[in-house]
Design a protein that fits this description.
The protein is of the alpha/beta class. It has seven helices and 17 strands. The two termini are about 35 Å apart. It binds flavin-adenine dinucleotide.
Length: about 350
């Protein structure tokens, strides 16, 4: 079958690879270069974690599969992608129903290596992070971070080896009738394309703080795990200091609605929110310059993705709605799309019909 995939972010690349691996003739179109610095998939690091609160039974098995697939891709490509350094989900309260302890219970059921740490143990693992307000931490041994650019390069090389034609950096042909089947994986740009997602998808601006460490902070965060902390106003997360000397800290409260074609100038208000967080929890970094960037979440109402056939256009498949958490699943997104397109397997949690349930 001839299949055209539109969009070379993580959904599109992984779909192209999975379809080509299953013997299909695939062309991957993107008007922008690969990697594209305005795509959500472009980054210095992306978190991988099993903790998903009440959704852990749905997502953690997919994370486990993706973890194995990233390792296979590392071996095939010779690139280092997955940094499995662990993840520490800090909590202000010992609340059984909160995200951290709900995840911990669900992960244990899956025999996932997870531990509850007291404040002292958390402080040992994260020197320089003020822990006086912290009650406990849930440590996920399989969590860590992915080198997003290495992952994109490895997938695009694999796509080429499998015979995928890469048509990037030039305007793609119209998608209607482009091939026997079409995969639309255009990330935040879905908000500019009319379709059955129009009423439901919200594209929101997210600021990532990239704090450039200096001589007074060069050791700060180097040994930390990936971490998260839900405060009363919002959730915050961050990574160990990147080899390039950047301490990345972000807030995952949905930001203002954004147009993917608009400015990506960092928001002063979002940067100020992060600086206030630093003053409270990472004092020694509070003076550092924020060289951060604005990236876009493509949010569905329930924050589950869309991997389904377009009801008005048989043969057109939609892969997206990453909702700020899809990157870690990489190759697994491709498998799910290929199974939807080639085998007709429909998973209700990723179905388009759930967005417009009339
Ligand atoms: C700030 C931020 C932090 C995040 N952190 C994490 C994290 O820590 N862990 C995690 O797992 N996930 C994370 N995510 C989520 C993850 O990055 C996204 O869910 C995922 O990258 C979305 O991939 P995509 O392929 O849908 O979109 P994109 O990567 O945006 O790719 C879409 C592509 O479509 C192309 N395109 C646009 N229009 C057309 C067209 N007409 N035809 C063809 N191509 C087109 C674009 O050029 C682009 O290359 C984060 C997201 C953001 C914004």
């Amino acid at each position: 079958m001839k299949i055209s995939v539109y969009g070379a972010g993580i959904f599109g690349l992984a779909s192209a690879v999975a379809l080509a691996r299953r013997g299909q003739s695939v062309t991957l179109y993107d008007p922008n270069p690969l990697p594209h610095d305005r795509a959500a998939s472009y980054d210095i690091s992306k978190a991988i974690r099993g903790s998903y609160g009440t959704k852990t039974p749905l997502y953690a098995p997919l994370v486990l599969e993706a973890r194995a697939e990233w390792r296979h891709l590392e071996r095939r490509s010779g690139r280092t992608i997955l940094h499995e350094i662990g993840g520490l989900h800090l909590a202000l309260r010992d609340d059984e129903s909160a995200f951290e302890l709900t995840s911990e219970r669900e992960l244990r059921r899956l025999a996932w290596p997870v531990e509850v740490w007291d404040r002292g143990r958390c402080a040992e693992a994260m020197p320089g992070f003020a822990m006086s307000e912290i009650c406990l931490g849930v440590f996920d041994r399989y969590a860590g971070w992915l080198d997003a650019l290495q992952a994109l390069y490895a997938l695009s090389e694999e796509a080429t080896q499998l015979g995928v034609r890469l048509e990037v950096g030039k305007p793609p042909p119209p998608w209607e009738g482009a091939a026997d089947a079409v995969v639309m994986a255009i990330g935040a740009w879905f908000s500019t394309e009319p379709g059955p997602w129009s009423q439901s998808i919200r594209t929101s601006e997210q600021h990532e703080g990239f704090f450039a460490t200096d001589s007074s902070t060069e050791d700060l965060g180097r040994s930390w795990p990936f971490w998260s902390l839900d405060l009363d106003d919002a959730g915050y997360y961050g990574f160990p200091t990147h080899p390039g000397g950047i301490l990345k800290v972000a807030c995952h409260r949905p930001g203002p609605v954004a147009d993917p074609r608009g400015s990506r100038a960092p928001s002063a208000a979002a940067s100020a929110t992060l600086r206030a967080f630093l003053r409270r929890h990472i004092h020694t970094a509070a003076h550092l310059e924020d060289q951060g960037r604005t990236c876009l979440y493509t949010l569905t109402p329930d924050h589950d993705w869309i991997i389904d056939e377009h009801p008005g256009h048989p043969g057109v498949f939609v892969a997206g709605g990453g909702s700020g958490h899809a990157f870690k699943f990489g190759p697994t997104l491709g498998r799910l799309l290929a199974e939807r397109l080639l085998d007709g397997i429909q998973r209700p949690q990723f179905a388009l019909s759930r967005l417009n349930p009339r």
